[in-house]
Amino acid sequence: MKGHKLQITDVSIGPEPFPDDDDLRGRYHEVRVTVRNASKDTTLYVNEEVRHRRYDVATKTLSLGFHEEEYDGGSRITSRGFHEPPQTAIEPGSEVVLVVPVVKRFVNIDTHARRGENVEDLDTTGVEHVVCRVAYDEAPFRPSGAARSGLEKHQEFAKWGRRVEGRCRVGRPGDSESGGGHAIAR
User: Fold this and answer.
1) What average pLDDT does range 71-86 have in this prediction?
2) Beta-carbon count within 10 A of 68 CB
3) Which residues are CB-neighbours of 13 under 8 A, at least 6 positions away?
4) Average pLDDT, the chain
5) What are phi and psi of 170, to 5 degrees?
6) Over 50: is that where the pLDDT of 182 sits?
């Protein structure tokens, strides 16, 4: 897919996000994703919240999704379980930096694995690569009037917009592998 209007121009892990909080200091990475609206005349809306994360221990790669994944039937979604994501408008030719704290240790629950084998404690303090996928569109996401349940809203959001991807190597400021981002087939 060519002609992406949104570009990821940089992905990096920034400074300690909570340097003055004794309870939180050292427990989070601060991930910064710089996105640019390459359009000359269209405002774009981006999801500014990480909706899912994964960590590959073998490759030391932290993957962050600023988009909703298709529902796979593995977990229960209720109307209380879905909340509309915060979104940011980016004017034509402008850049915005999405800054999100990401906990360094988290538990990954695989809903498809057998009980007792489905929980994995992940420590991302040794992360070497970050991959981000950001959803965007020319109109902000709003659930349709027909979507009443949390599952229906989730499914609508998973289909909203386009995706662009950016990557970086950690510990090398400005060494983003983004190259303007590229399309993700959905």
Assistant:
1) 62
2) 23
3) 29, 30, 31, 32, 127, 130, 168, 170, 171
4) 79
5) -75, 145
6) no
Q: How confident is the model at residue 4 (pLDDT cuts 50, 70, 90)?
A: low
DSSP state letter for 97? E
Q: Counting beta carbons within 10 angstroms of the beta carbon of residue 161, is it exposed (0 to 12), middle (13 to 18) or buried (19 or more)? A: buried
User: Could you give the CA distance from residue 74 to residue 160 in angstroms, rounded to a whole number?
Assistant: 21
- For residue 88, what pLDDT band results from cuts at 50, 70 and 90? very high
Overall residue count recorded for the chain in this entry: 186
Residue 127 CA to residue 147 CA, distance in Å, equals 38
- The β-bridge partners of 62 are 55, 130
Q: What is the 3-state secondary structure (H, E, C) of 141-176?
A: CCCCCCCCCHHHHHHHHHHCCEEEEEEEECCCCCCE
| Amino acid sitting at position 114 | R
Copy the structure tokens of residue 18. 């909570």
Single-letter residue type at 183: A
